[in-house]
Structures are given as structure tokens and as C-alpha cells.
């Protein structure tokens, strides 16, 4: 069985809810869901059985719901000198230093992050508390068939906390979710007398929590592959965007809706081994690729006889030994690529240039048809002049 692992990442977390819906459609069932920071909010709503409500939340949430405009300006400009701090703030600063000097296995970034919190302490925590209070039902989480877990850093007690729902005192789940999301921009404020920091500063991708439950991790990240991927278990399924589509604090309903859709289709790409970089293309055979190459190139090979950069006299040798290798290199293909790799890259490059809709799953023939419709012509009658322009544009 599987455990769902949701990385922290602020506004980028919309990606995760789209991925979850795709996983459910594909037949995956989860015994547990764990998350850090925004992943703990998504995870709690998934455990509640209210993923649809989570989608609607993302489609209406904007930055002003969390941080007022005046506070954003203040965070960007305000720094407090050490002598302006209260005795309590100075004491917390010393606690942070002690965490590291005591040799605890908490990342060095905690110190600088919490010092930032002490320096700015301008953003109210109340909107985040309200968001959690209005959307998380503790009883539903506790009664869920899916075990829930989260990560936070307890600064007061000098320890990181990886907590399952049974470890959290009854009535305090919302407090711990807020603690997991406690970014350094928020005002210094104790939660029941203790200070916390965003769990991402200790463990941004808590796959170990589902491993402890003897579950296979399905990790849904909020950013592209990085050094963390090297530490993931070999049997883990990792779903991640190909690039950063937005920033941590860029809460915007339009971007969130796109991220939900990207997460959905990226999951299908991962599980179904779809082709494409930006696009989502069903796999196809070498035989189909060869037929497409024939349809695109064979009737137009006379064009290459006029191009001095192609040297071979046989037009078929010229195609396979010069034209395709040159095009492939220009498309970024390296090593032992297949003809299917070549066709997918060629069609995708032109589709992106023509702004063909990318958030859907295509058969290669469907994407070619869309490309031809965009040009107002049928694929079989693709004009030599247009073909020549395409080749000349790709081969610089």
C-alpha cells in the first residue's frame, strides 16, 4: 500500500491537489498522508475526504487573504536592530543559536530563518489561523481511514517534531498545522506558550514518516528535481514539475488553477510514461514514427538537394544520415535517441511555437492534426514552403 507525501512550498502547493486527483483516477489508494507546511493543509483536507473543497480553496485564495498589502511592503523594508528587541525576543534568538551549538540535527537554515522572523515580525498570523480554522475539521481527520502526519520545528524545546495524528493532543490539530506553516515572515507569536518554525526548515519532504508505517511513498513535490531526489527510496514514485511555475508567496487563483491542471497531467505523464517535455503525448511505436517521418519528409527531399549544408547525393541517405541528425541536435536530443523521440521533439517544438494548447493528453497524430489546423492546412498537404521554413528555423 501507499503513503502520500506532500512537500512544502507555499503557493506552489496547488500542484499537489491536481496530482492527487490523477492518482485516485489511476487507481491508487492511500493508507496515510503526511505533509510539511502547505503540504500539511492539503494533506489534512485529503484525509478529511474533502479534496474537492481543497480545489475550490485554491481557486479562490489570493495573497491578500493571508498577508495584507501594507504588511507585504513592511516586510520588504523593515529591519529591527538587536537593541530594539524585547528581552523575550533576545532570549528566543539565543535559543536558536543553542540549537545549533548543541549539535541537534536541525538544518543550519533554521537559525537564519528564525532570525529573519525576529527582524521583521510584521505579518499577522491571524489570517493563516483563520484559513486553517475555516477549512480543517479535526474530528474528520482523526476519524479518517487515512493516517495523517505533519512536520514542524519546536524552537522552544529545541527539537523538530514529526507527528502523526495520534501524537497531537485532541483539540490542537489546527495549532500544529499552523506551526507547520510558520514561515519567518509572520509575527513572533507563541502557540500555547511555545515558538514554532515552518517544518520545511527541517524536513521538507517527510517520506520517512510513511516508511515508518511500512508504506511505499508517493512523493508529490512542489518544485523540480533537485539534490533531495537522490535520497528518496528506490521504490518511491516521485511526481514533480519540470520547472518552477510560480513562487512560494504568489497566491493567485488563476495561477493556482493552472498549477492544479499541471499537477494532474504531470501525474499521468509519470504513471503512464507519456512523452513530451511541456506537452503530454501518448507513447507510440517506431513503426508509427517512421510513417510520420515518411509523410513529413519523403515527398520534400528535393528541398535538401538545394541546400549545400547537406552533402550526400542519395536523398534517403541524406534524410537519415544528415537531416534527422541535424534536426535532432537542434532539438536537444543526445545519445541513442529513437525515431519516436525525434518525432515527439519535432512536433512538440513546433506546437509550442504555434501556442497549441498543452494541458491535455494527445496521441501524436492528434497533436499533428492540431498543428496542421493551426496552419489552416491538412497534414497530407503540408506545403513544401511551410516545411522548408520549419526546417530552416530549427537548423540555425
TrEMBL record:
The keyword Nucleus does not apply. The keyword Oxidoreductase does not apply. The active site is at 37 (nucleophile), 198 (proton acceptor). A motif (GXGXXG) lies at residues 8-13. GO terms for molecular function: hydrolase activity. One of its GO terms (biological process) is lipid catabolic process. A motif (DGA/G) lies at residues 198-200. Residues 4-211 form the PNPLA domain. A motif (GXSXG) lies at residues 35-39. InterPro entries: Acyl_Trfase/lysoPLipase, NTE, PNPLA_dom. Keywords: Hydrolase, Lipid degradation, Lipid metabolism. Pfam families: Patatin (PF01734). This is NTE family protein. It comes from Anaerosphaera aminiphila DSM 21120.
Amino acid at each position: 500500500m501507499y503513503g502520500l507525501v506532500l512537500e512544502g512550498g507555499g503557493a506552489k502547493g496547488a500542484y499537489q491537489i491536481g496530482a492527487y486527483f490523477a492518482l485516485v483516477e489511476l487507481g491508487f489508494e492511500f493508507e496515510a498522508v503526511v505533509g510539511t507546511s502547505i503540504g500539511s493543509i492539503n494533506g489534512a483536507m485529503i484525509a478529511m475526504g474533502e479534496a474537492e473543497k481543497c480545489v475550490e480553496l485554491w481557486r479562490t485564495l489570493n495573497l491578500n487573504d493571508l498577508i495584507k498589502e501594507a504588511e507585504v511592503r513592511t516586510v520588504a523594508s523593515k529591519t529591527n536592530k538587536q537593541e530594539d528587541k524585547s528581552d523575550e525576543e533576545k532570549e528566543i534568538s539565543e535559543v536558536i543559536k543553542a540549537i545549533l551549538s548543541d549539535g541537534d540535527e536541525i538544518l543550519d537554515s533554521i537559525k537564519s530563518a528564525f532570525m529573519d522572523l525576529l527582524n521583521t515580525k510584521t505579518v499577522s498570523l491571524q489570517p493563516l489561523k483563520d484559513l486553517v480554522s475555516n477549512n480543517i475539521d479535526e474530528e474528520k481527520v482523526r476519524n479518517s481511514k487515512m493516517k495523517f502526519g505533519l512536520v514542524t520545528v519546536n524552537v522552544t524545546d529545541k527539537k523538530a517534531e514529526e507527528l502523526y495524528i495520534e501524537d497531537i493532543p485532541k483539540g490542537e490539530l489546527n495549532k500544529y498545522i499552523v506551526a507547520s506553516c510558520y514561515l519567518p515572515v509572520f509575527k513572533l507569536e507563541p502557540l500555547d506558550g511555545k515558538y514554532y518554525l515552518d517544518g520545511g526548515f527541517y524536513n521538507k519532504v517527510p517520506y520517512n514518516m510513511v516508511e515508518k508505517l511500512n508504506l511505499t511513498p508517493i512523493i508529490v513535490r512542489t518544485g523540480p528535481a533537485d539534490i533531495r531526489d537522490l535520497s528518496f527510496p528506490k521504490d518511491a514514485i516521485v511526481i514533480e514539475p519540470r520547472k518552477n511555475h510560480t513562487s512560494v508567496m504568489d497566491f493567485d487563483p488563476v495561477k493556482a488553477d493552472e498549477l492544479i491542471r499541471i499537477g494532474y497531467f504531470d501525474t499521468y505523464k509519470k504513471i503512464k510514461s507519456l512523452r513530451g517535455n511541456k506537452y503530454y503525448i501518448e507513447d507510440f511505436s517506431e513503426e508509427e514514427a517512421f510513417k510520420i517521418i515518411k509523410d513529413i519528409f519523403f515527398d520534400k527531399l528535393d528541398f535538401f538537394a538545394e541546400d549545400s549544408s547537406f552533402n550526400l547525393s542519395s536523398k534517403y541517405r541524406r534524410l537519415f544520415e544528415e537531416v534527422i541528425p541535424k534536426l535532432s541536435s537542434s532539438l536537444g536530443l543526445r545519445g541513442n535517441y529513437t525515431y519516436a523521440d525525434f518525432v515527439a521533439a519535432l512536433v512538440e517544438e513546433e506546437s509550442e511555437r504555434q501556442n497549441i494548447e498543452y494541458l491535455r493528453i494527445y496521441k501524436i497524430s492528434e497533436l499533428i492534426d492540431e498543428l496542421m489546423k493551426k496552419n489552416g492546412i491538412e497534414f497530407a498537404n503540408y506545403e513544401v514552403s511551410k516545411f522548408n521554413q520549419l526546417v530552416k528555423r530549427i537548423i540555425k
